[in-house]
Amino acid sequence: MAFVTRNVANAMATSAVKKMVVKTVTVLGSGLMGSGIAQGVGIRLQAKVAGLKFVQDTMKNISTSIDAASVVHSSDLVVEAIVENLQIKQDVFATLDKFVVQTPMTSQITFEALIDFAKALGKHPVACKDTPGFLVNRLLVPYLMESIRLHERGHGSKEDIDMAMKLGANYPMGPFELLDYVGLDTSKYIMDGWHELEPNNPLFAPSPLLDSLVQQGKFGRKTHEGFYKYN
Ligand SMILES: NC(=O)c1ccc[n+]([C@@H]2O[C@H](COP(=O)([O-])OP(=O)(O)OC[C@H]3O[C@@H](n4cnc5c(N)ncnc54)[C@H](O)[C@@H]3O)[C@@H](O)[C@H]2O)c1
């Protein structure tokens, strides 16, 4: 586990209204999501240079630590992106809650600060209630799981299903390519959690094929093998 702190001072300098300003961000976890989030945050908006200097300027905004407690107390924002395991997440939050402010609900000022922060990073934030999978994963994960089930039932090869969805739905990746990219372990843990919440929901039913691949340590691109093999 790595804790990556990125300084994004000045990112919010144009805000006309005095609001909560996010200057220093800690990203917990340095896997697929954590490294991607940290990269997005670390890139200074005003950087117009290209190539090596851009990388060097970005890296100046970054420091890393394996001691979360030593960095979160000086952070304006903490983004949790560790492994999809409720107990591990709860353990980490139990540790960090000693250092960060706890509120029972997200305040409007926090909500607005995060919307502004995301916009300052060039993102397009959307609002969503606190619900499993929020918007994207709530739609995406059942689709990915149904793709596996379609293949498990012998209705199509993974290659043909991927090709069909890329050409038929104009998706940049087919479901099996995307599953390998997301991580089969992460996908399984998400589905297991939802299945536990709603055991009778067929959209959240586990897949023997997915379970078997994860059991074999085939997590997708991160382990060089999932539904496909990678060099
Ligand atoms: N992969 C995706 O496309 C995707 C999309 C949306 C949300 N998410 C969510 O983001 C989170 C991270 O997913 P990911 O794909 O980056 O996973 P990942 O497997 O790539 O990375 C997991 C990170 O958790 C850390 N970790 C593992 N065990 C830990 C422990 N005991 N204590 C603290 N940290 C530990 C690892 O070192 C690693 O940095 C998960 O909750 C996942 O559901 C992932």
Per the principal axes of the C-alpha atoms, what is the gross shape? Answer: globular
Task: Provide the gyration radius in Å.
Answer: 20 Å
Physical arrangement of strands within the biggest beta sheet: 3-1-2-4
Please indicate the percent range of residues in DSSP E strands (runs of 2 or more): 5-15%
Secondary-structure element sequence?
Answer: EEHHEHEHHHHHHH
Biggest beta sheet summary: 4 strands, mixed
Name some characteristics of this structure.
NAD+ binding; 231 residues; four-stranded mixed β-sheet; 3-OHacyl-CoA_DH_CS; binds nicotinamide-adenine-dinucleotide; alpha+beta; 8% strand
Please explain how this structure is put together.
- α6 packs across α8.
- The chain starts with a strand and ends in a 16-residue tail after the last helix.
- The protein is globular.
- The protein is 47% helix and 8% strand.
- About 4% of the residues have low confidence.
- It has 231 residues and is α+β, with helices and mostly antiparallel strands.
- A four-stranded mixed beta sheet has the order 3-1-2-4.
- Bound molecules: nicotinamide-adenine-dinucleotide.
- The site of nicotinamide-adenine-dinucleotide (NAD) has 18 residues, from α1, α4 and α9.
